[in-house]
Amino acid sequence: MRDREVTEVTLLIDGDVVAFTAASAVQKIHEDEFGFVTPFANRREGEAVVDNIIIGLEQLFSATHYRIVLTDPVENWRRGLYAAYKSNRKDTARPLLLDKLKDYMREKYAAFHWPSLEADDVLGILNTEPQDFPGKRILVGKDKDYRTLPGSYHVLKELDPRGKPVVWETTAWEAQRFHLFQTLTGDAVDGYPGCPGIGKTRAEELLNNPVRLTPQEGVITRGVNKGNSTTKWVSEPTRDLWAMVVSHYRKGGQGEAEALVTARLAHILQHEDYDRETQSITLWTPDQIRQS
Predict the structure, then answer these.
(1) Count: domains in the chain
(2) Are 133 and 66 contacting, i.e. CB atoms less than 8 angstroms apart?
(3) What is the pTM of this model?
(4) Distances (CA, A) of 79 to 39, 86, 99, 118, 257
């Protein structure tokens, strides 16, 4: 029994990514004699690509089980925190077959969604549940945010030189670190800002060598502004990662409230954050941070 469990693999698949990949692959354009260009796509071709992706994943991993998850097409709990969440995508053209292929996966592969949750969240909950899933769990998708989750992750279609699927392993500390990185930088893809003045390079530096900033009031002693008051931000090493994050938000003219909203937007839900019976979410709090 033990040997069987070790060899079993459960794939937790982001159906949004599968549908988008397939719909994009089969979409074509037709240009008529007058120069008018019209996009078109064949539904059966799209369904065939979906089948190939899912069957291919099963074969690549010798998977014994899989679950395909979609995003709730109507509600999104993050918009309750930040109304502009993903609003930058509203003018982006969607592949013609996107919704039809999601419906196809619902009918053929039992793909599902949970109310108000993104596919990322449902996958995060399933991936971190303590219940007895068969064998090894591997997330499959293309979202960098999965780096905020501990566990195993395969970027769809990423193979090594031998044609074997690449599986990334993320520790609990690495997951937490990337979550704080996202809290500092924000996410342009999802349309929410981070800490003013903090880019990716500076965020990496702060996580490698955390410093807390403290404002000190003073008076300019020379130059054209002599006599005017000024604020100098003094840095000191700290092990309190949340205090580090908040102090940099304050230097940027914001505060803990803005930092907390960003951290909650960046946090993919895990099993302890969601009650299946009541469908209620427990929002992320700074006391979830654990020191390395």
Answers:
(1) 2
(2) no
(3) 0.90
(4) 31, 8, 21, 11, 16
